[in-house]
Amino acid sequence: CPNEAWGTPDIEKYYNSDMNYSAKSHYAEWSGDYLWLPSLAETGYSGLASVWNLSDAQRSNNIITWLRSGNDNNAGHAEYLNTNGNYKSDLTLQSYAVRPAFHLDLTQAATVTAIPVQMPTVGATAADRSKTYNAAEQMFALQNYDATQMSVTVSGVDPSGNTIDAAHVSFDAATEQFTAKYAGKYTAQFTLADPEETFWWDDAGGKGDGILTFEITPKQLTVSLVNNVVGDLWEWVVRDPYTATLTVSEILSGDTVGLKAICTADAGGAKQEIAATQSGTQTVATIDLSQIAVGTYKLTAALDNSVGESINYSISDGLTASNMPRPFTVRAKTADLTGVGWLHTVQDTD
Length: 350
Fold this sequence. Notes:
Layout: E1 35-36, H1 40-43, H2 56-59, E2 65-70, E3 77-81, E4 87-91, E5 97-98, E6 101-102, H3 106-112, E7 115-118, E8 121-122, E9 130-132, E10 138-143, E11 150-157, E12 169-172, E13 177-180, E14 184-192, E15 198-201, E16 210-217, E17 219-220, E18 222-227, E19 235-237, E20 243-249, E21 257-265, E22 271-275, E23 277-279, E24 282-288, E25 295-308, E26 313-314, H4 316-321, E27 326-331
Parallel strand pairs: 2-5, 7-15, 9-16, 17-26, 19-27
Antiparallel strand pairs: 1-6, 2-3, 3-4, 8-10, 10-13, 11-14, 12-13, 14-16, 18-20, 20-24, 21-22, 21-25, 23-24, 25-27
């Protein structure tokens, strides 16, 4: 019985120990096949357990099936299994059924047969994942969350990159909602409860942690900049008694926002900062233009994120709409020679 079994099975698993030809040349050439006909040593028969330890019920079939084992008395015969799981031999020209065998990697099969788990999503649209700061707690609905299959942790960073206190962001498994109040980018990290038996059912697949993001964007404030220079020009003579007023509006009730006007010299980059004063939903910086030296400058503004709720606001759009940074020029005084008389004498040199 050549090619009866691969490897070195126990000799008693052969139906005849004299038929062990595993040491013969070319014996292993079939071992890499994906499909092959079983041998009598592999299937066994009634009274012989076989290499695969099959029962009569496992090896029996409703029709006769060929084996690859040759007969020990007749070169033109091969063995087959009959319907009760026993064996006989017949001429190889007979038309019997075949039951091929194949290798099954159970480790890989376990991965394939693991339970797929749907990765949660935040909302149905992009708008559901991005909201604007409104000074109140806001809800982000989670879809496809299953507390029996996963756990979740959530964290956030504010617009300056600082970690948002964990007390200000939460997840309620009962309502499947995240709650957050302050402007920032938030990250939800999902971990499978049983990665041995489950995997993520999404494009990436796998068993590692899944990540979702959502955000609260800073509220944009309006910005206005005016001066009392004649004609609202941005050029005047040094020491002229003019002022400029920078106003930021639409601050939400109860919030405190820090603002400063910044005047930067074109030559040398020297800066002067003027703090604003808040009143209700506005904060105003008044700039004494008479105190600025001769030169060319640019005037802009910035929020002071160390003050109150400033981190939850932005003036980037407002600065653009107000044409800031705003260039301006302070000219030197010119001498007024009107009414100046000239006194001279003539000297005779003779």
